[in-house]
Design goal:
It is a single chain. It is built from 10 helices and no strands. The protein is mostly helical and 169 residues long. The longest helix has 27 residues.
Length: 169
């Protein structure tokens, strides 16, 4: 069964990495918001922009695309592991899966409440400020994975284009 799955995955690698990278690159918007609203707001006392209404809802929806993106990108690195990129794949998987800590343990709500000192709802956090900075750091650990996945995406497109040109001749 696994052989059949990986054979299918490799035959459709360009499509698979395109979907995974597309979902994952959406996280760049979340990181821009986090940096410009939460981090800059804490460091300077005034955020570059804050989100309300529909923009906030869209940002929340985009943030949750991280879950299917993690699964898709995991397959990219398991496939790379299978092809011999063991240490590098392991490192990327550790950085990628550190996001589960952020998603399930240290939420954005906690980060915003702790960093800003305000509460988004009716409760306030009892967790320390340093933990919010840890959560922000964890969130940015996905940047090297985004860059590498983008590199793999562009390489897959170039290889697909070469195959198309080869088939035309």
């Amino acid at each position: 069964m696994w052989k059949a799955f990986w054979a299918w995955y490799e035959r459709n690698y360009t499509l698979n990495i395109s979907i995974a990278f597309g979902l994952f690159i959406l996280q760049a918007w979340h990181l821009v918001w986090l940096g410009s609203d939460v981090v800059i707001g804490r460091l300077t006392g005034e955020s570059l922009f804050s989100l309300e209404g529909l923009a906030l809802i869209v940002t929340i929806v985009v943030d949750y695309t991280e879950i299917p993106a993690i699964f898709g990108i995991t397959l990219v690195y398991i496939d790379a592991w299978r092809r011999g990129e063991r240490w590098y794949s392991a490192l990327m998987l550790v950085l990628l899966h550190s996001q589960w800590l952020h998603i399930f343990w240290i939420t954005d709500e906690f980060v915003v409440e702790t960093i800003s000192g305000a509460t988004l709802h009716t409760h306030s956090t009892v967790l320390p400020l340093w933990l919010a900075w840890v959560a922000i750091g964890i969130d940015y650990l996905e940047v090297p994975v985004m860059i590498d996945t983008g590199r793999r995406f562009w390489r897959a497109l170039r290889e697909r284009d070469k195959e198309i040109l080869k088939d035309l001749h």
